[in-house]
Amino acid sequence: MKRYQICCIGAGYVGGPTMSMIAYQCPHIDVTVVDISQARIDSWNSPSGDLPIYEPGLRELVLSVRDRNLFFSMELDEAIENADMIFVAVNTPTKMSGLGAGRAADLTRWELSARRIAAVATTPKIVVEKSTVPIRTAEAIASVLTASGRTHFSILSNPEFLAEGTAIQDLQNPDRVLIGTNTEDPCSVEAMNVLVDIYSHWVPRNRILTTNVWSSELSKLVANSCLAQRVSTINAVSEICEATGADIDEVANAVGLDKRIGVKFLKASIGFGGSCFQKDILSLVYLCESLGLDEVAEYFYWIVKLNDHQKERFVFRIIHGLFNTVTGKRITILGFAFKKDTGDTRESSAIEVCRRLLHENAILSIYDPKVQSSQILSDLGHCTRLDPLELNQHVSIYADPYEACNQSHALVVCTEWDLFKELDFERIYCQMEKPAFAFDGRNILPHERMKSLGFVVYGIGKPLDKRLNLV
Ligand code: NAD
Ligand code: UDX
């Protein structure tokens, strides 16, 4: 009997891990992940398991199913034609030009994928919207797919809620799986049942929610906006703390212990990053503006504005703390990824912090345990428009945190990597210029111990160290 065939278009941070989990949990299904990037596919197929993304547990998962019932391939047409179900997990970044630039999601890749499916498919397919898309995308995609009239397509919305750094845990044990479908179309309901059945292999049935397509598409944007809103709220409060002498961690704990609020996602920081939050809020803002809901649009837009303010505020603290000039001073950037346990730098707040410091003529020594040097240089080249030669004069990247701290005027923590908590700060203090400053953008360093060693320490939302002269 023919085995059930799944194809996924897009072998990125979502396509790779989600399909690996389905292949692992459903050995009776063949899963083929395709992409237009030869380099990505080669890396997913790398014999040594040198995968294109770093995610705890991913390598083990992929190696356990690869070439058993999980395949990575460049043969898009073949995979589409063979598939019973096609997930589309291509990237949907914010549009950079044209109508809706800076707000709307760019659906070019999504539409190209739909057109490819329409051109190739000759047998009925279930098409699953895995990418995060604006509300009513499924409807638009349906018209592209059905225009050829060659076969029948059922379209489902199945947004992904995994977070990077915990993707495997999130996929293994999701809070919920959301499937949106056109409930008036019996074929779509049948397709929905097939997808419910796949997830039921490991997700309890009461955590698999089924809704109409539009609720599903909108829920994804709203979930990310709510999470980001919590971060912007606590970051806004961190500024009040610094102005009053309250301590942000004490406040977050006292507030979060109210069960209606909850303690998670109240960690003050240099601002949220990542490829999703800002893009999805802006997409929601664009939707509201298009609907004439100006107050609602403005409400959500402020989440992003506050995030920008937090990054800017952090850099001002560094410059003012270092006697109002960082020109020619060596500053150590600890962490470049947008959060710990990932090598992803998309929209990382570290990029903006570095851009501003470079603009002030600082000399940066950067250390991140998982981000490639080429990625850091590419991100900084892109945001500063400095050519590689100029960049090399101002930026050095180190594979060892102690070397990165040598002769530095200040440590600046941008990512909350656990290893930073365990550094030998006595050794680092000895290597640094004096006074030795530490600006902890994640509040993870041992502040009291560092102060006792002689460091002048700034923590987000923490009572200000008198020696910083910032009040
Ligand atoms: P990504 O950039 O890591 O991966 C997308 C992949 O799609 C790339 O490898 C790209 O080469 C490929 N691609 C683009 N156009 C293609 C085409 N026409 N044919 C074949 N392949 C094509 O993106 P991602 O982070 O995996 O995000 C994918 C989607 O999932 C986005 O809509 C995103 O908003 C959403 N999402 C992401 C996350 C996350 O944590 N990254 C979480 C939930 C949802
Ligand atoms: C997010 C959503 O959590 C996930 O459900 C969705 O599918 C994709 O977008 P991700 O961006 O991978 O996931 O990571 P997340 O843990 O949400 O962190 C986003 C940013 O917010 C990071 O820069 C993180 O450091 C920051 N953050 C998070 C804080 O600053 N404080 C917090 O309390 C939590």
TrEMBL record:
Residues reported to bind NAD(+): 10-15, 35, 40, 90-94, 131-132, 164, 276-279, 346
Binding annotation for substrate: 160-164, 220-224, 260, 267-273, 338-339, 442
Span of domain UDP-glucose/GDP-mannose dehydrogenase C-terminal: 332-447
Single Gene Ontology BP annotation: glycosaminoglycan biosynthetic process
UniProt lineage: Eukaryota, Rhodophyta, Bangiophyceae, Galdieriales, Galdieriaceae
GO molecular function: NAD binding; UDP-glucose 6-dehydrogenase activity
Pfam family, one: UDPG_MGDP_dh
Domain of life: Eukaryota
Pathway assigned in UniProt: Nucleotide-sugar biosynthesis; UDP-alpha-D-glucuronate biosynthesis; UDP-alpha-D-glucuronate from UDP-alpha-D-glucose: step 1/1
Protein family per UniProt: Belongs to the UDP-glucose/GDP-mannose dehydrogenase family.
Enzyme Commission numbers on file: 1.1.1.22
Name of the protein described by the UniProt record: UDP-glucose 6-dehydrogenase
Residues spanning the membrane: none
InterPro entries the record matches: 6-PGluconate_DH-like_C_sf (IPR008927), NAD(P)-bd_dom_sf (IPR036291), UDP-Glc/GDP-Man (IPR017476), UDP-Glc/GDP-Man_DH_C (IPR014027), UDP-Glc/GDP-Man_DH_C_sf (IPR036220), UDP-Glc/GDP-Man_DH_dimer (IPR014026), UDP-Glc/GDP-Man_DH_N (IPR001732), UDPglc_DH_euk (IPR028356)
Catalytic reaction list: UDP-alpha-D-glucose + 2 NAD(+) + H2O = UDP-alpha-D-glucuronate + 2 NADH + 3 H(+)
Record's GO cellular component terms: nucleus
Sorted UniProt keywords: NAD, Oxidoreductase
Catalytic residues in the record: C276 (nucleophile)
